[in-house]
Amino acid sequence: MAGNIFVLGLDEQNLSTLHDVAGFADYRFRPLLSAEELVEADRLPMQSLLDKARRQLSEFDGSVDAIVGYWDFPVSSMVPILCRERGLRAATLESVLKCEHKYWSRVVQSEVIDEYPVRRRAAGRGRAAR
What we know:
This is Biotin carboxylase. By secondary structure, the chain is of the alpha/beta class. It has helices at about 10-20, 35-40, 45-60, 75-85, 95-100, 100-110, and strands spanning about 5-10, 25-30, 65-70, 120, 130.
């Protein structure tokens, strides 16, 4: 039985890449919202995009076995939200945000490794800043 993998913002180039991945012959890659809606739009109304994706998934007559994406925000934030709602495995929204947000990422890095990020002197304070 083929699994259904929904790809946020799936376009022809990425679909071609997915078809080249070994071991995925039994899976069907299905578009979930368009790249134009998610990447090329002037505005990215997150709630509206989530609602539209939820409707599309609910209206699908079959199993939703995975939800993935190629793009950064808003796709990277939508994947964990939609997966959590459907009980699918995915990174948590918090972990995605910790990786994408430059400051938050550096704070987390400084908690686990002394060598990086490089500590800089706080302007005018004469002490190391993180």
